[in-house]
Structure formats: C-alpha cells, structure tokens
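Preliminary data (for renewal application), NAP complex.
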Amino acid sequence: MTQSVALVTGAAAGLGTDFARQLSADGARLVLVARRKERIEALAAELGKARGVALDLSEAGAAERLMADVAAHGEHVDLLVNNAGFGLAGRVAEQDGRRLRQMIDLNCGVLTQLAHAVLPGMIERRRGGILNVASTAAFQPGPGVAVYFATKAYVLSFTEALHEELRGTGIHVTALCPGPVATEFAEVAGFGKAKTFNRLGASSADVVAAGLAGLARKEAIVIPGLFNKVGAQGSRFLPRAAVRKLAGMLKL
Ligand SMILES: NC(=O)c1ccc[n+]([C@@H]2O[C@H](COP(=O)([O-])OP(=O)(O)OC[C@H]3O[C@@H](n4cnc5c(N)ncnc54)[C@H](OP(=O)(O)O)[C@@H]3O)[C@@H](O)[C@H]2O)c1
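Predicted structure:
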C-alpha cells in the first residue's frame, strides 16, 4: 500500500505556498518542491504531514528524480499542482537565450512530464486531479513578454485537451488562469516596480481558493475575477491583429 499525496511544485513562495496551506487545511499529505530548501522545509514543518524536496526542476532529469523520490518514499500522487513557473520581461532579441529556454523547460516541459508521469497511476485508481497553473497571458500573444505568454498558451491548450481526454475517467484536470497576483513573480520576471501587480494584483490565497474550487467542480478553465474573465474572453471577439496590438500597448 502506498500513501496518497498532493504534489505541489513551486511551493516556496506565492501561489504555491497558498496551495500548500489550503490543501493542508483540507487534510492532504503534501510533497512540496522548489529550489529554496530552507523555505519548503520550514513550510513542511509548520504544516505537518508534509515533506520538502529541494530541486531545480528546470535541470535535465529533475522530473524523473522527483518521481523516483516519491516512489522511494512509498507515495502515490492523487493531486498534482503544476505551479512552478516564471516569466521574463523584455524583447526577445535582447534576452538571455539560456533563461528563455529554461522558462520553456519549466513552464511547459516539466509540467507536461509530471502530468504524464502521474496519469497512469491515477487512471488505474480511477481518481485524481491535475491543476495546471496557466495565466490570463494564455489568451493572447504578449509583445514584450513573448515567450512567457507563449508558454502559458501551451499550458492552457494542453490542459483543455487533457481535460477532454480524461472525461469519464474520474480524473479532473483544470487550468487556473490568474491575472496579476501579488507574489514574487513580477520581481523575478523583471517588471521593475511592477505597478500593475502591486495595484491590481489579486490576493494569492483568493486565487488559489478559486482554483481548488474549480478543480472540485470539474471545470476545465478557471479565470478568477470578473475583470480578468472579460479581458480573457473579450479577445475572442476582436481580430487577432487588434488583439496583439492592444496587448503590446499594455504596460505592466
Ligand atoms: N503572480 C502572477 O501575477 C501570476 C499570474 C498568472 C500566473 N502566474 C503563474 O503562477 C505560478 C506561480 O507563480 P507565483 O506568482 O507564485 O510566483 P513566485 O512567487 O515567483 O513563485 C514561484 C515558485 O516557483 C518556484 N520555482 C521557480 N523556479 C523553479 C525551478 N527551476 N524549480 C523548482 N521550483 C521553481 C519558486 O521557488 P524557488 O525560487 O525556491 O525555486 C517559487 O516557489 C507560475 O506558474 C506563474 O507563471 C502568476
């Protein structure tokens, strides 16, 4: 018999920490992953029924090492929260190519690999949940943040397809698409003072609660906040040329 766990990537800060807190309050046993060992170990100790795994998930072979570690601890994943991710602001030609590749690897590659790794067990047990953190960035191209927006478009498309593939299997798959949230994200991405994030940023706890509620309701897509819903869906009613021009005029 293996032990059921919820696996949360990127639990050292922001949304990931709130996922850990809210899932723990719901009684889940947790495996928390991020690079900053002290942070996840302190959070695990505070929450109880939790352990931290310090890993740079963007490194080659990291997802395999994580799944081997879960198996070695006699655990199986009933809930995967694919949350770890980062953005990079700036024109593509001026950015560090290695960091861009790392972002694609983490935001898309690792997310896909972890979902692929946990699915066979979930299908066998006929239950499970996968919550992939996308963004409202997924709904339009993002001049000035091009690769990040493209990674989130991938996450949304992948998640919607998986949601349909798994219909009727007992496995719920949801894409959480937040607008700006006040976390470490803006600073890591290099948005400077990040006015939008500080002024308009939703609370991380509210966004996480909306995501978990949407997963429980078997929703394919959760967009927290009316303003974000209108913005995300509104882009469907405009010509693509207008959408990308408008997106390029937005100053974060
Ligand atoms: N904040 C927003 O406005 C916003 C809006 C829409 C979507 N999102 C998405 O929400 C998710 C969480 O972001 P956040 O806002 O909570 O940002 P955050 O505060 O910067 O947290 C990011 C988390 O990911 C971890 N992480 C980063 N790189 C990692 C790596 N290579 N390996 C393992 N863990 C790594 C970080 O911990 P370590 O640094 O210790 O590794 C941290 O725990 C991301 O996918 C982001 O794209 C954010």
